[in-house]
Every structure is written in structure tokens, then in C-alpha cells.
């Protein structure tokens, strides 16, 4: 409104700041920074807080069960709501067994898939196939369960099993009559569910292997396959291990699809053809219609066990990754 | 600033007015529990709201156990359960609870035996032996003796049961416990039991699918589910020695048979499996709504009792529509007396001569 001219030439009049002054200005903390930092810290602390809260809730609600059954809970096989006797051994074994089967099937397939897509597949094929594999992860687990009941189980029982039975039937892990719902069916379903995670992460890891490694291998006279086996896979093993652990974590906690195909029977059996049970399944199955307090508490107790199992698995994985990473570091300096 | 404060105050005033109008206009009743009866109660809620727009009933099928818990904790106005509350649970609410039967469910054996199209006959004893794992082949003499003329194969019986805790399992195991002392002693009855043998699937669909997909399988499902999905099922022998086809009529007959000699002072926590009556289907059970005997809020109490009264009378016609068996007349008559005995601060909620709205 007024006609005061703007002091346009002021910067030129002012003396140039010394280097030290500029540093000080850069280091000075503005009020915005303080708020920003506080908000971020609070948000970041929320996550561990939630984890601790979950652990605390589990322990509190599991306490009646822990008091009533103690550590014997972990080694008993009975699950009897009528007589209030609960044991989690078949559930723990079932959870680990089904996840182990899943890993045994999914890891080689996922690695093969990742290697093929990064090293061997023609360029035009790579991204469509990668996308399709990743789409597997988008299928809801209840759909996998339905597919398991209607397609996978009849396929395994009526077509695949009669074919391999003369050879495998004598092995203890394939003994007994195969009715369909079983540890094997659960393992296969789980393997399909975790495959996209392992494949996608492994593929990213292999893509990150520097071309110089590849070229060095080839220059030393290795075939492409030898390069993959002795250069590229060892280089990425820490990352691949991480991918496997991610898949394992998912397999341990999967509920719906497993419940639909595992047979839900509290027994510990070596044979993969026998039905089993997992921790996540029993919680989903029994929680809403639990009658006695001890039954509810037992479910919390077994949930706590699952929590501890996943913690242990993750800790072991961390150690493994460190070991492997150190190994590859040594290897690369040696090169 | 002043104008801002004024407009805020005005807005608050409006909100208060609107709030009180809303509170006076609509009475909200909440209930939760039985998933088995969920389709019926939610239908009641919808139909009742059409006649009485001022009453909104919100029912959630959270499961019987959770329903009893929420009712006991005072979270809900009424609970719903497929198994009656235990003495311990009743003691927890100081006895201030009434069990009101609303409809009847029944459970039937279903099976998948390749080459067998006839409707098989079972007795409770044989079903118990099968589920105990004592009868393992379909051509066992104890099964063939009940089914002369049916050629049963030399096939393994694969027992299928529910993996989830459920009212259906409660009815089934209650029946087996009554029929077989071995079962009662070894397994007992509850919403989930320690099954001696078998595979398990979640829910009626889970059991049905395993039975359909597994040659030689036998399972148990609710009547409503079997009717809606056209599942083949067996005849079961009743206490009169006749083999009964499960249907809405024979299920209602079961309740009628069971309450024929019922003490008028019953608390309705009764098992109606294996009842008397020539045409009664033996594997049936009541399902209950739980309300307090002494309520605190007269407006809510009146609305709730009107709603329940309507459900026990006009609401019964939705039972058959949804494949639930309606209550026998005698049960409703006793329940009318129970509803009239409910009080708020010592005052009865319904007048003595109440006959519905």
C-alpha cells in the first residue's frame, strides 16, 4: 500500500558470513526440528511398545494356565476341554513340522525361480513371470484352504500318492493310510503360500549382485551354471537366508488355510500322511466357543509359546545371517 | 473470538438437543453369542425394527462362550448360547439370569460311502462305537445288522468332527454320552472334546467338505446346514425304537417330547437329546437367550421384553423359513410366565395380563 521501496540491495551490503558462521547456522536446531524429532521418536517407540503390550497381555491371560499346568503343558499331548487337561506338544510339533515341510518344498523352488529369472530367462519373460509369482502372495489364505480341500487333497491322495507309494510307502515318514487332510497337505499348501515371498526377495538379492562378480566368474572359465552356484548364490546367501526366514515366519503363523487341510487332530506322528494340528489353528478354532476359564487361558498359554517360538526363530535367523554375512565378507576380501 | 465462541456454543446446544432427541427416539438393545442362532436373531432384529422403528436390536454372533462372558460382564443387554450356563457361571452373576429357549437345533450323521445310495440307519450306541474308534469298517456286523438289504463295503470308516469348539459338537457329544456309558466316561460332552479318533474341519462347511471328499467318511452337521446344502444323512433310532428322519417337525417333536412332563418351575437348562415321543428325532437341543431376572432400566427392560415376547410368538414363523424348528406351545407358555416375572426395582416390567402388542 505504501510507497516505501524494497531494500533490494541489502544482501550485497551485508558482510559475507565466515565458514564457521555458516556451519553454526547449519548445526543450529530449529524449533521445527525439535517437534519433528519428538514426533518421529514417539511413533517409532509405538511399535516396540505394541510388541511389549502384546507380550504382557499374553502372559497375564496365560497365567492361570501356567499356574495350573506349569511346563508340563509343553510335553503333554492331551487336549481335553471336558476334563480340563491341556497339553501343547502336538501343537508345537505340528507347527514346526508343517513349516519345515513347507520350507523343504518352497526354498528349492523359490531359489530356482529366482535364479532362472535373474540369470537364465530371456529378458521379455522376466518381469511377467516375476509378477505372476508375486501375485501368489495376493491370494487370500481362505482361498488356498478351499483350493486345498477341493483340488490339492484329491490330487495328492488319488493321483500322486498311488504313483509314488510303491517306492516311498516303506519309509516311516510315509507310513500309514492316506485319507487326505494331513501334515503333508498342510505343508504343501504352506509351501505355495510362502514361495512368492522367498522368490521375490531372493530375486531382489540376486539382482543386487554386482555384474563384476558375474563377469569375474565367467572370465575365470566357469560355465554360467558354475558361476551361479559358486559365485552368485554364495555372494547373496545372507539375503537369501533373510528371505527364507521371512517365509518361515509366515508359515509358523498361518491359520486358516492350514486349519482347512491339516485334519486338526491332537497327535504327534512321524508320518506326514497323518493329520496334525498347529498352534495358530487351535487358537482360531477354539477361542470363540471356549467354555472354561482354563481352556481360554490354555489358548493364551499356547499363543505365548508361539510368540516365544517365533522370537527364537528370528533370533537364530539373525545369528545365521551375521555368520553368513561375515563369511561372505571374508570371501570377498580374499577375492 | 467472541463470535467464534458464540457459534461454538450454538453448535454445542444444537448437538445436545439433537442428542437428547436421538436418545428419546431410539432404544438400542445389544446382544451377542451363539453363531448357530445368528441368522434367526438378526432376522428378528430386522423384522421387529420394521414394526417398531423406535427399537434397534443389534445382535453379534461372537460364539456362545463369548456371549455368556459379555452378558455376565454387563457389556450386552442379552446373551445367547447353545449350551446352558454352568452353575459356576450362574453364581458369577449372583443367579440373576434367566434361560429362555428360542428355537431348536438338531444334528444329524452324514456319510460318504461309495456305491451306497440308501439312507443308512444308526443307533446312538453304534454312532458312539464308531466315534470311539471301536467300529472301524463299514461292513461291521453292528452296522449291517441295522441295515438289512444294504450291501456295505469292506471300507475303513473315517471319523470326521468339528475342529472348532461349537454348539453342534455339544449336542452331538451330549447325545453320545446319554447313549453310551463308555463315551460318557471316556470322552464326555462339551463344545469341544478330546476326540479318540478322526479328522476335523472348521465349521459345518469344513466337516461337510471333508466328508464329501473322503470316501468312507462319517461326520455330523446341523439340520439347517444339511437342508440348505442337500447333504445326504442317516436315520437315527429314537427312544421309542423307531428310525427317525431329521426334519423341522421331528425336531419340534423332540422338544415337545422332552417337555411333556416338564416341571413348570424349570430353569430350562435341560438337555432334550433322546427324548420321549414316538416321532421325536433324538439328537436335538434348545438354544437359549439369556436375560437378567432383575433389570435396572425400565425403558430398556420394557423394550427388551416386548422384543422377546414378539420373538417367541410372531417371530417363530421365521424359524421354519430359516430352517429352525419352532418351539412347542407348552414351552412358550412357561416362558410367558418367566417374562412376566422379570422386574425393575421390584416392579414387574410386563403387566399380568400382557398378551403382546
Give a brief description.
The complex is a heterodimer of chains A (335) and B (357). By secondary structure, chain A is an all-alpha fold.
Question: What is the CATH C-level name of the largest domain in chain B?
Answer: Alpha Beta
Give the SSE string of chain B: HEHEHEHEEHHEHHEHEHEEHEEHHHEE
Name the average pLDDT of chain B: 88
Structural domain tally of chain B: 2
Which architecture of the largest domain in chain B would the CATH scheme give at its second level? 3-Layer(aba) Sandwich
CATH superfamily of the domain at 73-205 and 239-326 in chain A: MetI-like
Q: CATH superfamily of the largest domain in chain B, called what?
A: Periplasmic binding protein-like II
In one word, what is the shape of chain A?
A: flat
- Give the strand line-up of the largest sheet of chain B: 2-1-3-11-4-8-6-7
Profile the largest sheet of chain A. 2 strands, antiparallel
User: How do the strands of the widest beta sheet of chain A line up side by side?
Assistant: 1-2
Distance between the termini of chain B: 54 Å
Unreliable spans of chain B: 1-23
Shape of chain B: elongated
Tell me the layout of helices and strands.
The complex is a heterodimer of chains A (335) and B (357).
Chain A: H1 10-13, H2 19-27, H3 31-69, E1 79-80, E2 85-86, H4 89-120, H5 123-135, H6 141-168, H7 183-207, H8 211-219, H9 224-235, H10 237-253, H11 256-262, H12 279-286, H13 293-334
Antiparallel strand pairs in A: 1-2
Helix pairs in contact in A: 3-13, 4-7, 4-10, 5-7, 6-7, 6-11, 7-10, 7-11, 8-9, 10-13, 12-13
Chain B: H1 2-25, E1 27-33, H2 38-51, E2 55-60, H3 64-72, E3 78-81, H4 87-92, E4 98-112, E5 121-122, H5 124-132, H6 141-144, E6 158-162, H7 167-179, H8 181-186, E7 199-201, H9 203-213, E8 217-222, H10 223-229, E9 235-237, E10 243-244, H11 248-259, E11 284-291, E12 294-295, H12 298-312, H13 317-321, H14 329-340, E13 343-344, E14 347-348
Amino acid at each position: 500500500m505504501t510507497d516505501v521501496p524494497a531494500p533490494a540491495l541489502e544482501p550485497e551490503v551485508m558482510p559475507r558470513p565466515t565458514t564457521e558462521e555458516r556451519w553454526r547456522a547449519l548445526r543450529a536446531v530449529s524449533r521445527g526440528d525439535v517437534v519433528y524429532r519428538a514426533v518421529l521418536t514417539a511413533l517409532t517407540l509405538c511399535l516396540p511398545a505394541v510388541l511389549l503390550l502384546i507380550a504382557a497381555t499374553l502372559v497375564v491371560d496365560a497365567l492361570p494356565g501356567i499356574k495350573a499346568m506349569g511346563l508340563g503343558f509343553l510335553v503333554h499331548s492331551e487336549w481335553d476341554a471336558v476334563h480340563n487337561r491341556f497339553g501343547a506338544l502336538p501343537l508345537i510339533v505340528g507347527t514346526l513340522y508343517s513349516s519345515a515341510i513347507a520350507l523343504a518344498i518352497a526354498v528349492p523352488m523359490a531359489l530356482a525361480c529366482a535364479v532362472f529369472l535373474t540369470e537364465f530367462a530371456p529378458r521379455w519373460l522376466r518381469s511377467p513371470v516375476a509378477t505372476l509369482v508375486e501375485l501368489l502372495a495376493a491370494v487370500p489364505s481362505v482361498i488356498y484352504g478351499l483350493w486345498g480341500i477341493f483340488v490339492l487333497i484329491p490330487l495328492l491322495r488319488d493321483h500322486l500318492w498311488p504313483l509314488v507309494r510303491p517306492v516311498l510307502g516303506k519309509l516311516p515318514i510315509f507310513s500309514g493310510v492316506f485319507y487326505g487332510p494331513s501334515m503333508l497337505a498342510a505343508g504343501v499348501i504352506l509351501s505355495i503360500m510362502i514361495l512368492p515371498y522367498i522368490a521375490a526377495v531372493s530375486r531382489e538379492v540376486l539382482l543386487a549382485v554386482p555384474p563384476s562378480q558375474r563377469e569375474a566368474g565367467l572370465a575365470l572359465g566357469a560355465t554360467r551354471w558354475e558361476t551361479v552356484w559358486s559365485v552368485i548364490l554364495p555372494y547373496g546367501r545372507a539375503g537369501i537366508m533373510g528371505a527364507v526366514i521371512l517365509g518361515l515366519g509366515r508359515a509358523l503363523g498361518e491359520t486358516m488355510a492350514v486349519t482347512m487341510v491339516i485334519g486338526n487332530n491332537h497327535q504327534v506322528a512321524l508320518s506326514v500322511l497323518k493329520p496334525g494340528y498347529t498352534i495358530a489353528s487351535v487358537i482360531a478354532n477354539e477361542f470363540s466357543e471356549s467354555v472354561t476359564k482354563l481352556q481360554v487361558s490354555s489358548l493364551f498359554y499356547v499363543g505365548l509359546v508361539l510368540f516365544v517360538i517365533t522370537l527364537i526363530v528370528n533370533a537364530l535367523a539373525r545369528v545365521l545371517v551375521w555368520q553368513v554375512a561375515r563369511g561372505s565378507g571374508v570371501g570377498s576380501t580374499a577375492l | 473470538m467472541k463470535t467464534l465462541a458464540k457459534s461454538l456454543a450454538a453448535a454445542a446446544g444444537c448437538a445436545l438437543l439433537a442428542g437428547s432427541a436421538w436418545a428419546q427416539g431410539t432404544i438400542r438393545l445389544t446382544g451377542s453369542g451363539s453363531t448357530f442362532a445368528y441368522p434367526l436373531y438378526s432376522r428378528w432384529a430386522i423384522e421387529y425394527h420394521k414394526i417398531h422403528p423406535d427399537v434397534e436390536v443389534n445382535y453379534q454372533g461372537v460364539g456362545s462362550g463369548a456371549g455368556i462372558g459379555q452378558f455376565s460382564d454387563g457389556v450386552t443387554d442379552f446373551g445367547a448360547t447353545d449350551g446352558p450356563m454352568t452353575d459356576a457361571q450362574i453364581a458369577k452373576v449372583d443367579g440373576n439370569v434367566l434361560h429362555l429357549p428360542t428355537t431348536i437345533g438338531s444334528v444329524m450323521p452324514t456319510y460318504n460311502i461309495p456305491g451306497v445310495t440308501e439312507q443308512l440307519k444308526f443307533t446312538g450306541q453304534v454312532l458312539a462305537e464308531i466315534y470311539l474308534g471301536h467300529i472301524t469298517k463299514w461292513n461291521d456286523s453292528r452296522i449291517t445288522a441295522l441295515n438289512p438289504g444294504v450291501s456295505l463295503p469292506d471300507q475303513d470308516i473315517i471319523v470326521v468332527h468339528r475342529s472348532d469348539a461349537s454348539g453342534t459338537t455339544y449336542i452331538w457329544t451330549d447325545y453320545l454320552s446319554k447313549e453310551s456309558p463308555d463315551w460318557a466316561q471316556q470322552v464326555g460332552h462339551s463344545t469341544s472334546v478330546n476326540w479318540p479318533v478322526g479328522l476335523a474341519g472348521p465349521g459345518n462347511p469344513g466337516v461337510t467338505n471333508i466328508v464329501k471328499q473322503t470316501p468312507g467318511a462319517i461326520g455330523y452337521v446341523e439340520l439347517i446346514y444339511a437342508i440348505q446344502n442337500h447333504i445326504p444323512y442317516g436315520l437315527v433310532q429314537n427312544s421309542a425304537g423307531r428310525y427317525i428322519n431329521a426334519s423341522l417337525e421331528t425336531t419340534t417333536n423332540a422338544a415337545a417330547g422332552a417337555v411333556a412332563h416338564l416341571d413348570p418351575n424349570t430353569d430350562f437348562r435341560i438337555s432334550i437329546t433322546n427324548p420321549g415321543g414316538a416321532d421325536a428325532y433324538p439328537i436335538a437341543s434348545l438354544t437359549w437367550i439369556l436375560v437378567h431376572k432383575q433389570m435396572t432400566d425400565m425403558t430398556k427392560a420394557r423394550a427388551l421384553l416386548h422384543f422377546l415376547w414378539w420373538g417367541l410368538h410372531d417371530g417363530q414363523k421365521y424359524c421354519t423359513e430359516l430352517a429352525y424348528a419352532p418351539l412347542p406351545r407348552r414351552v412358550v407358555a412357561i416362558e410367558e410366565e418367566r417374562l412376566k416375572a422379570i422386574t425393575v426395582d421390584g416392579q414387574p416390567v410386563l403387566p399380568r395380563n400382557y398378551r403382546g402388542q
